[in-house]
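Subject: two folds for Thursday's group meeting

Dear M.,

Sorry for the delay on this. The cluster queue was jammed most of the week, so I only got both jobs back this morning. I'm pasting them in the order they finished. Each block is the input sequence followed by the predicted structure tokens. Could you check whether the formatting survives your parser before we put anything on slides? The first protein is the one we discussed after the seminar.
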Amino acid sequence: IPPKAGPRKSRHLKRQKVRWWRVRQLHRKKKQEKVAAHYKKMEKRSRIVREVKECKDVALTVRGEEREYQMEILRRSVLRMLELEGEGGGKLSMLGGGDGDKKEDVLEKH
């Protein structure tokens, strides 16, 4: 048998070439997935920040409206108490009023 001539492992080199090509393709795909995930995460974060800012902007007006509503309820409650006081109880002293205080004076104090 004559001695073999030429390079050895040509199939091995070909397999390694294909293997590393696939590895590079997988890395490329994984990098694209990571970039897409990053953009998706940042979009979600931006949306949340926008919603929070809108909520904060609206909060000032809502708090003012709530305060007005609470004051109106308090006024009604005081007027109801004063009407009951006129019918025959000594409840005006609870509001800090004396014997000669009128409804308007008590409302202005509180």
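Second protein, same layout:
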Amino acid sequence: KKTRGNPFFIIQFLKTIIQNRMLQYSVSHRRWMWDCDVIDMQMISDGVAELLTTRFNQLPLNLMKTVIIASCFGSQVEDSTIDLLKPFNMQGALQLAIREGIMEK
């Protein structure tokens, strides 16, 4: 009910509850384990923007700076522009942003 069916919010919500260890896979039971009451009591935002802001503020500083810089180029950044950023050692942070689902390649 927190996600209201928004696919993007569902992904972010799942990432948050997994990161906060509220949803875990039990090898011994061979299934996912969670407690709806615990999840409902947590201060997980009901809004996409607030949830993303919270997640963004939890990012490592170098990743946050990289995302901020990349966002200055717009919603899409050409490979040639990324190449110009190589002297600033942002490649690792860009790869992490892609793995975290913050950016797409």
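Two things I noticed about the second structure. Helices lie at 7-19, 36-41, 48-57, 61-71, 79-84, 91-99. The beta strands are 23-26, 31-34.

Cheers,
T.
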